[in-house]
Amino acid sequence: MGRPGAVGAGRDRFGLTGTSQAYDPRVVAIRADLADIAGAGQYFAPHYAAPMMPSCVLPSAALRVSPSLDAEQTSELLFGESFALLDLTGGWAWGYGLADHYVGYLAADALGAPIAPTHRVAAAEAILHGAPDAAAGGSAILPRGALVMGTVEGEWLATAHGYLPLAALADVGTDETDPAAVAEALIGAPYLLGGRTANGIDCSGLVQLAWSAAGVQLPRDSDLQLAALGADKDIDPGALARGDLVFFPGHVGIMADSANIIHASRRWMAVKAEPLADVVARSAAKDHDPPVCGYKRLR
Description:
Strand 4 and strand 5 (about 75-80) form a beta hairpin. It contains four helices and 24 strands. It has helices spanning about 180-185, 205-215, 220-230, 275-285, and strands at about 35, 50, 55, 60-65, 75-80, 85-90, 90-95, 105, 110, 120, 125-130, 140-145, 145-150, 150-155, 155-160, 160-165, 170, 195, 200, 245-250, 250-255, 260-265, 270-275, 295. The longest helix is centred in the C-terminal third of the chain and has 12 residues, at about 275-285.
C-alpha cells in the first residue's frame, strides 16, 4: 500500500489506469465509501483519506470487523502502538495498525495523542505505578509488547501515565535473541481468536509477538505470515531447531527445540508446548491427508 498518507503536493485527484486491482481486505483499507490514500491509483473508491496517526492509550484494544461490540475480534492493538486512522464515526475508529497494516474498527476512546516510543514492555506484564515505588498503587497493567515513552529516573521510567519499572522494559531497538523464550513465557495463556496478550492470544498472534521482540515484524494471520516468508517443505523435521516456525493449514507454531512446538491451540484452548509429532498426527487425521507443513528458519 505504500507509506501511509503519502501524497504529492497539490494532488487531490487521482487516475486509475486499467481495472481496479484485487485486494485482501484484511490488509488493504478500502470500504464502499472510503479508502486509504496510499491505494489511490491502484484501487477504486469514491473518496480517499490520508490517515492520522494516534496511539493506543488502553493496555489493549480489540480490533473488530465492524463497528459493534458484538462484532468478531480479529486482532488487538497494544498500548502505545500506532493506528492509521481513516474515519471516526459514532464512537468507532476505522483504519489499520501501522505495524502490520491489519484493518478494522477500534473503540474511539482507545486512541489518544501519538507518542515516540522509547521503551517496550519485555516482561509478560508491567504494572503502571502512580509513583516510583513498588508499594505505590497501580493504575494499569501493560502487556508484553506495549510501547511507552518516558524518561529514566533511577530504576524507573517516568511516563505521562505513571511509572514503570525498568526491569520490565527494554529500550526500543534492542532486540531479544530468543523469540521462543517469549512464547514459552506465555504457556498457559488462554486461547482467544484475535488476541495478542497473556489475557488471550491466538496462534499467529503468539508468533507475531515472539518475533517482533526479536525485531522481525510479521503479518497478523498465519497465511499472511507464510506468504510473506515462504516456507521450505523439504527441510527434514528432525533438523528443526529452537525458534523455527512450522506452518499448517490455518495454523502456526514456534519450535521450543528440535522435537517440541509451542502454539496457541484451539484444541487445548491455551498456549501449550507439546511434541510436534502429535500436532502433525492430529492434522493428518483431521484432513485425512498428510498435513502441508512449511518450515521457516528466521535466523
